[in-house]
Prior knowledge:
Radius of gyration: 21 Å
Shape: globular
Oligomer: single chain
Amino acid sequence: MTYSGRPPYIVCEDLFKIYKVADLEVVALRGLDLTVEQGEVVAIVGASGSGKSTLLNILAGYDTPSAGGVSVGGKDLLRLTAGEVEVYRREDVGFIWQQTSRNLFPYLSTLENVALPMMLTNVSTGQRRQRAEELVRLVGLGHRMDHTPERLSGGEQQRVAIAVALANHPPLLLADEPTGELDDATAAEVLDLFGTVNQEMGTTVMIVTHDPDIAYKVGRVVMIRDGKTSTEIRRRVTFQRMTGTAETEQPLEEFSLVDSSGRVQIPREYLEQSKIKGRARVSVEDGKVTLVPEAPTDE
């Protein structure tokens, strides 16, 4: 259960992902645990190669873990057939890539790009156009409906990409560095739009980003280090609207995450300050867990 008392919408349990590159095995995820509530906005941060994009690809149904469990909206992604995975991608999740060229067809207009995903459903032509027009207006591009991507700015292209991702009413929206190629002002506008989508449509949003101020823009930030969730930062008031402007007056709380196996990552600077190397003694007193370095032995 989560803070709201409802079952979590996203559950990742002890996820491992191992890629084989030539004769080498690369471990992208190393026992990652994560839960996300329905309607929550979560930012995933971490160094390059930490496993952020791998996690998003697994949640989107584009990849499968090597071990562990993952469910979204009560659906066990590891038990879905190939056909069920296709339905899941089409109806349950919207995905936004950092590279706008991967989100849009260059020869289609804004309206046509947004309507395209609905052609794979039973929605009529009239309903597709109406829904597409509503989404284009939602992202603030009602005056750009007939423009092809080359006639749009980078920020406008990402707005269209968000509309495309929302075409089939997915309850989950995943975005992999959606502002990485945008200037600060345009990036703020795109993040504001994510906040609008979350508030008006109740969409659960997970965004991978390198934005250093993201903790002041979303209710919750999860840090991934070495393929595992390590730290979580929350604004005191959770489920706040996602904004493109850093609300630095909002107090933040930082927590170390303890996974289902009892593992916790201790920041390296703490280990150095306490001179803990390799082994430590663990004790519990008055409800507090204490780690002390191994005492040196006389030879």
